[in-house]
């Protein structure tokens, strides 16, 4: 499961949201199909999703983190560099010069774990420098 980006979710909502594009992106397949068959629940669901997208992205990202760390706890195969890429924001997900979303509610810049505000953007490479 990949980390979702609030900006991407809003772009999909705007362009393909009436057909559930943003819901498919966030892993909500059932409601995505419902949106596709009913034109965004007759536009009512599509409009209310404008306010719900940050929460949907946070929920998706929380689940992605839980799955990632559960894999680590279960002794699954992973590369240490991959773990630090996730913690350090990865390409396009935070940190200086990486298209940071810091300050955007629900964006990767605040990790989505605390439910709002404050940024957790690490300086570029800071996580990998610790080891």
Automatic annotation (TrEMBL):
GO terms for cellular component: membrane. Residues 5-51 form the TM2 domain. It is a multi-pass membrane protein. Coiled coil: none annotated. InterPro entries: TM2 (IPR007829), TM2D1-3-like (IPR050932). The chain crosses the membrane at residues 7-26, 32-51. This is TM2 domain-containing protein.
